[in-house]
Amino acid sequence: NLTLLEVNLDVFIPLGYPNANCSIEFCDERVSECTLESINNAIKEELVLREGSMCMRPMLRWIERNIKDMLQPESQFHTHSSLKVYKKGEIEWSESESNESMTEEAPETSFQGSDQTGEFLEKEVGTSVRLIDINLHGTSHGLVPQNILFLLQCLRCKTQIELLVAPNSIKSIGCSRCSCELSCKLYKKLCLPGTTSIACVDLVGCSVADALMSRSQILSICTECSTSTVLGLSSGTINETWCLSCGHKMTISFEGIKTVVINPPLTSGKQRSKTKVAKGYTEGQPLPEKGACKHYKKSQRWFRFSCCGRLFPCDKCHDAQVPDCPLEQANRMVCGLCAKEQPVRSQCKYCHGEISGSLKSHHWEGGKGCRDKLRMSNNDSRKHKNSKLKTQSQKDKRVGQHKKKES
User: Which of 79, 110, 258, 330 would bridge 303 by S-S if both were Cys, CB 3.0 to 4.6 A apart?
Assistant: First the structure.
């Protein structure tokens, strides 16, 4: 048996690093040529997977973890045989080998920090929570919910209540208005690349109005070491985290939340609701009252406030419903005409509808105001500036030098 306390590596870092890939070569003379060749081939395969990233320190950690397996006599060391690279920085599992790797190798399913009770749900049941336009980059293999904060709406009185639910557990709460019992069971679901559903819930006496992902805890699973890292997801931004075990970078981004009712929720009498389930909004259909409220009747949008993650038509509605929450500026909104979530803007980027109130605006407005004098507000001083239609004084024709010359 060969025991090595240290190994010799030849490392070359080009001037264009990390755009230009570095090279690492195992050159220890105490190892046979056959083993030396197999180790260098394994290192080259790993470098190809990490091309275009800061891979020097992660590669050294990878060699330190796997050097014992690579030095085993007459052993063939395979690296990521079930992975295929289809984009730069993105990894996809092949269908034929993913099931074998998940059943034969124990580390692939031992997610640290996740709930080990129960199995992952394969098909969607109840109400499915989906992430719109989700992208998993880096070494993030998938997402598993550790707990999700739901905004539930009572089927009887339409009161909305927040409830934090963990996977494979049933949690109940009484409605603050009609005292009906509201129950929610969250099923554990693995969100892989190419899928959008992150959780499924069975409901009694309520429906899902919204899922507050910014205040929930989601586990991101690393493809390198199968370790899960807790993070909070925010829509419309790039959520970055690093694996606590191997240090690899994981990037997750999505545009919004969508709830799809597979099976209608049960009523308090344990019967399926025959009426249409009342949800917060449905993508592709106008919001209630087109997003307007009693404070701003011409504003056709809902704002997602970053302080609580909830949707409200305006800041006054936010203060009225959640008075204990410190108000912070909203940077996301839901269009009142097509109900699609997007960054705050005066015109929807999907349906191109004007949703910021009146079509007539002032000249300035932070540099993004109106420059068309026909659409400009009548209260703006620039609307009739240098205009031929503006009333001009005729006093110089009645008095002064011009009048004296005529007389």
Answer: 330
**H helices within 287-338, ranges in order?**
315-321
Q: 369 and 379 in contact (C-beta within 8 Å)?
A: no
Residue 206's nearest CA partner among 187, 188, 181, 186 is 181
Yes or no: say if 10 and 25 are a contact pair by the CB < 8 Å rule.
Answer: yes
Of the candidates 222, 258, 92, the one whose C-alpha atom is nearest the C-alpha of residue 144 is 222
pLDDT at 331: 84
Partners of 201 in beta bridges? 127, 186
Q: How far apart are CA 130 and CA 174, in angstroms?
A: 26
Q: Are 215 and 149 in contact (CB under 8 A)?
A: yes
**pLDDT of 152:** 92
Q: Is this prediction's pTM over 0.90?
A: no
CB 176 within 8 Å of CB 159: yes
DSSP-assigned letters across all residues of 63-128: HHHHHHHHTSTT-----STTEEEEETTEEEE-HHHHHHHHHH-GGGT--TTS--SS----S--SEE
Give the type of residue at 396: D
pLDDT at residue 139, rounded to an integer: 66
d(CA 241, CA 220): 9
- Contact between 335 and 351 under an 8 Å Cβ cutoff? The reply is yes
Give dist(CA 145, CA 50) in Å, integer.
Answer: 27
Alpha-helical regions (H) of 247-354: 315-321
Q: How far are the Cα atoms of 154, 256, 307, 310 from residue 280, in angstroms, in the given order?
A: 11, 14, 19, 11
Q: Which residues of the chain have pLDDT under 70?
A: 1-5, 52, 69, 72-119, 139-140, 268-280, 357-373, 375, 377, 389-390, 407
pLDDT in tens, 28-53: 777 778 778 888 888 888 888 777 67
Question: Which helix (H) or strand (E) is 222 found in, with range?
Answer: strand 206-222
Question: How high does pLDDT run on average in the chain?
Answer: 75
List phi, psi (to 5°) of 336. Answer: -75, -10
d(CA 165, CA 181): 15
Residue 76's pLDDT is 40
Number of H helices, E strands in the chain: 6, 20
